[in-house]
Specification:
heterodimer; A: mainly alpha; two-stranded antiparallel ribbon; two-stranded antiparallel sheet; globular; B: alpha/beta; Rossmann fold; 2 domains; 6-stranded mixed β-sheet; 4-stranded antiparallel β-sheet; about 35% helix
């Protein structure tokens, strides 16, 4: 029975601490799961599934970055570089040693986690903008290293073609097959992050964000937990890089440049800092934005511009709108799409009453 | 009341000749204070006397230039704050330092941090050991919520509470650590009379029922004189007096420090 809460009927702390304490929330999540796992792959064709795949991949990265930025209050402008670490680790393992994805994927994540933890070391001493610049340096160093060391990057183009992942001898070639592959890891990533942020380690992260001195006095080893946040976050980034590499069929450093780091920061800012659901909203929004702009310009652009102008405008339109939207969000809803969703939810929770 | 045991031999905390300089400023100079197990020891003194600096050194936030600090006989002079918390020292802050983004419940659960074990992997897996641990500690924290009468505020974000309640939650967070030594830095600052009485009652209850040793910094002399077993007085980084309320009240050096002259009645120290 789907109903709204009209009292507290929980009889155990377990029930009170459940991820979705309300029946209506449980049913909603179940409905979405069926929609995404059963209905979507049947209804959608390859093109739409490929877009959905991009969203699924971006969600994993955004959640990872949110653990670091939104929950722990540290900042990283080097996340695209951590993704490239994961991507090239997996690509090298897959190509040189013929490793299957279930080895190369965690290996890529772990390698990124190790590099991320090293980059996180300055976070003990520096905060905010200074840390941002330190991670920016990491982004550039890693980018340069991958680009200039052929042993890692695999040659002149700094790109490595990887075979499609295969499961029980079946190669996952179509977008539909890839969709299930990517979705499986995305679900693991979401559930893992939800669990992390509601338990001991996640609480410690938030404590460091809110009051680092008090957190330390309460017995949290700041250094350890900051590095842990960097490592976990970079693990997610590394896995994102591996998933993206399998999606594209090629590891290429151009997919992991500075602008990608900024894109991911935009995702979590627009989606909502310190929220797993917000990370997913942000990933959907930022992934769909350029596609929506292109659709719109292709459909209605002729009303304003000539065909030749359109060719010029469409790629730049994305950047302009992107910047404008971030400003609009920072001004109107600094807490992001997640807050919008919560406002809507809280409104209907007591509807038709005001409170 | 029966659980209250002030042992004269056993020292919970012992500061021996600690000094601390910040550049040219002498914050604490050669201060020795012994805190007996199970007592309420107050540290008073005019502004800038070095009270908070002493507390910061005990909790390991910074380390003394000279001298030693020992907890239950073990040297903790140069331990990290997180390690000192693990040894059972909890504190509150002069300016409220709650985790504003966390609920009251999570603030208290965070106080249990050093008593819990779940690492990254078991936290991510959650169902199993981590959940059992959460439930077990939740039960513990719920009894604390009952003690501090925070039942209806459990799920409220700590930052949204009124000032007096935030102070109470902060006391709760320190108590959640189940400390043997509780350091309170002006727990009654900015409170009205009723809130002060409540807070004093909580401090006394904790001391009497749990046997927790308390070191209290407070400017409200009425409260200090009423609930302290012993009082140490600091002035300009030096300890100028120590003893029970009556001894301190009658001490000429204390009157000198507070009033600047030797003639006034000691009763004036009642602020």
């Amino acid at each position: 029975m789907i109903h709204r809460e009209c009292g507290i009927y929980k009889t155990s702390y377990q029930a009170d601490m459940a991820l979705y304490p309300l029946p209506i929330a449980k049913w909603t999540v179940a409905a979405f799961a069926v929609l995404l796992i059963v209905v979507a792959p049947i209804v959608l064709d390859e093109y739409y599934l490929s877009i959905l795949n991009l969203i699924v991949i971006a969600s994993v990265g955004a959640i990872g970055l949110n653990i670091l930025v939104g929950y722990t209050g540290q900042i990283s402008i080097g996340h695209a570089a951590f993704m490239s670490v994961g991507a090239y680790t997996a690509a090298n393992l897959a190509v040189r040693f013929d490793m299957p994805f279930w080895i190369s994927l965690p290996a890529g994540g772990l390698m990124a986690a190790a590099i991320g933890a090293i980059v996180g070391i300055p976070s003990l001493r520096i905060k905010g903008l200074y840390l941002a610049i330190a991670t920016l340096a990491a982004q550039l160093i890693i980018e340069w290293t991958i680009n200039h060391v052929p042993w890692i990057s695999g040659g002149v183009q700094a790109s490595i073609e990887v075979p499609r992942p295969s499961l029980f001898g079946i190669s996952l070639d179509t977008q539909r097959e890839l969709y299930f592959f990517l979705m499986f890891f995305a679900v693991l990533a979401v559930v893992g992050a939800l669990n992390l942020v509601r338990s001991r380690v996640g609480r410690a992260f938030v404590a460091i964000r809110d009051q680092d001195i008090a957190a330390e006095i309460m017995g949290i080893n700041i250094f350890r937990y900051k590095l842990l946040a960097f490592a976990i976050s970079s693990f997610y980034a590394g896995v994102t890089g591996v998933l993206y590499t399998y999606y594209l069929g090629i590891a290429n450093y151009e997919q992991f440049q500075l602008v990608v780091s900024i894109d991911y920061l935009a995702m979590i800012i627009i989606g909502g800092l310190g929220s797993i659901l917000g990370s997913i909203f942000g990933a959907i929004f930022i992934t769909l934005l350029p596609i929506a702009i292109r659709w719109f310009m292709e459909g209605f652009g002729y009303l304003l511009f000539t065909q030749a102008e359109l060719m010029n405008i469409v790629p730049h339109m994305r950047l302009v709108l992107f910047g404008a939207l971030i400003i609009v969000f920072l001004v109107l809803e600094p807490e992001g799409l997640n807050r919008l969703w919560q406002n809507v939810r809280n409104y209907f929770r007591v509807w038709p009453f005001a409170y | 009341m029966s659980a209250r045991t002030v042992s004269t031999e056993e020292l919970e905390l012992s500061l021996r000749g600690i000094s601390k300089h910040f550049g040219g400023v002498r914050a604490v100079a050669d201060v020795s204070i012994d805190v007996r197990r199970g007592e309420i020891m107050s540290v008073i003194g005019p502004n800038g006397a070095g009270k908070t600096s002493v507390l910061n050194m005990v909790s390991g936030f910074y380390h003394p230039d000279t001298g030693t600090i020992s907890l239950k006989g073990a040297d903790i002079t140069n331990e990290k704050p997180s390690e000192i918390a693990r040894l059972g020292v909890a504190r509150t802050f002069q300016n409220i330092a709650l985790f504003k983004g966390l609920s009251v419940l999570d603030n208290l659960m965070l106080g249990r941090h050093v008593r819990m074990k779940a690492g990254v992997l078991s936290s991510i897996l959650y169902w199993g050991p981590a959940q059992r641990e959460e439930v077990e500690h939740r039960r513990w924290v719920e009894s604390l919520i009952d003690f501090l009468k925070l039942q209806d505020l459990r799920k409220q974000p700590a930052g949204a509470l009124a000032y007096g309640l935030q102070k109470r939650v902060e006391l709760g967070r320190a108590l959640a650590l189940d400390p043997s030594l509780l350091l309170l830095d002006e727990p009654m600052a900015g409170m009205n009379q009723e809130e002060k009485e409540d807070m004093a009652r909580y401090v006394l209850d904790v001391n009497e029922e749990w046997g927790t040793t308390v070191v209290l910094i407070e400017h409200d002399m009425g409260v200090v004189m009423d609930i302290s077993d012993r009082i140490a007085v600091l002035d300009r980084g030096e300890k100028i007096a120590e003893g029970n309320a009556d001894e301190v009240r009658a001490n000429p050096a204390v009157i000198q420090a507070y009033l600047g002259a030797g003639e006034q009645s000691a009763e004036a120290a009642h602020g």
